[in-house]
Amino acid sequence: MALKNAYLKGVYEQLSAKSAHEPEFLQAVLEVLESLEPVVERRPELEKLGIIERLVEPERIIQFRVPWVDDSGKVQVNRGYRIEFNSAIGPYKGGLRLHPSVNLSILKFLGFEQVLKNSLTTLPMGGGKGGSDFDPKGKSDAEVMRFCQSFMTELCRHIGQFTDVPAGDIGVGGREIGYLFGQYKRIRNEFTGVLTGKGLTYGGSLTRTEATGYGVCYFTKEMLAAKGESFQDKRVVISGSGNVAIYANQKATQLGGKVVAMSDSNGYIVDEAGIDFKVIKEIKEVKRDRIKTYLNYVPSAKYVEGCKGIWSVKCDVALPCATQNELDEEGAKALVANGCIAVAEGANMPSTPEAVAVFQAAGILFAPAKAANAGGVAVSGLEMSQNSLRLSWSFEEVDERLHNIMVNIYNAAASAAKEYGMEGNLVAGANIAGFLKVADAMIAQGIV
Ligand code: NDP
Ligand code: 2IT
Fold it and tell me: What domain range includes position 79?
């Protein structure tokens, strides 16, 4: 779909000229602007107030050098970033990604989507994202610690519990958050909720580890239920085998589904008996090993080199939970041809625009990342609440709040789509519902 509205088209053309070297960022923006056409037509003041121009321009971008010493004594240098995208509805909030592919384009796309996602959670959080091109794979714990300490030595002057609250993303889990928190506390001499995803002994929230994967399944459950369907006896394919994928497996299985395939960046496994999430947890969280070692635990399973082929495994429900643009047109066609009825995005922007078009043309259920994976940041918001209260809630209490939030996000996206004449289009519905709250807050706060 091309943009028809002159205002949105103009904004997008200007942005493309200025950001021609940022393809992922432009991809994320274009999808949102396409959804907002009926909104700007109904509300001409958005143009006069320059709301869309302001929405696509980060409030602040911080880039810095991260020097650290490796185990052989050699100095290494990585590039660190924090994008403080939008603070209209709360302090900047969003994860840190450590992966060799990290660059400004990827972090801007993630930060931009985070603004609307955080709005959908109904919690008071603005949007941000950060990270580095540091590759934690193959590094010792001591190297990861030295990197995190150096990264935080610079980052600490820009963040704070009321300013900007980072968390995990690809390559950043409990270990990294611990090292980052320790260094922040040491430099600033304050114990505050400046990071989320913390360990349970020092202010972390129960259910945060599980939240994104559980949330994806709670959202999918609602989406299926609206069509009289459920996870019961469904074949489920989940790409990735990291934090989001592991707990999506656990919840999909608890809800009656059978997870038959999972992957990492090298290849995928197929286990017709159903993949036990505890085995993946052991391989990935404890051993930090490759998914092909699953065959050492379950010799009857199959391993296939290369990760893209996972979409050719027959399934009813597909949950892409690895990374951006991992599911392309060919993968989408294979899913549809094999009778898949629902796709829900656990990763951020895992489906290419061509893949989304295939799903929409086929009329299958499609849950976009901003809505479907908002459970992680939602529980981060609940961690912030608990830190402020100096209390911690039980697993059941946080899980119940997470469940309610995901049901509400589904309803908000479904009803916004209907209200703006695009019933059933959860991409448009999520973008519109997330946008309206941010836009109204921006308008109320004047030209800032
Ligand atoms: P992890 O680092 O725990 O796991 C990432 C998984 O994705 C690994 O299996 C990894 O394989 C795979 N992967 C990463 N990059 C690539 C690539 N270029 N090609 C193929 N596979 C790849 O990250 P998370 O599970 O936390 O994050 C996964 C996705 O979910 C990301 O898109 C993230 O932004 C999103 N997300 C995460 C949230 C969270 O709370 N953690 C919240 C909302 C969204 P390998 O080990 O081989 O690299
Ligand atoms: O993409 C995401 O929503 C996250 N990585 C989680 C961010 C957070 O602040 O918990």
Answer: 60-193
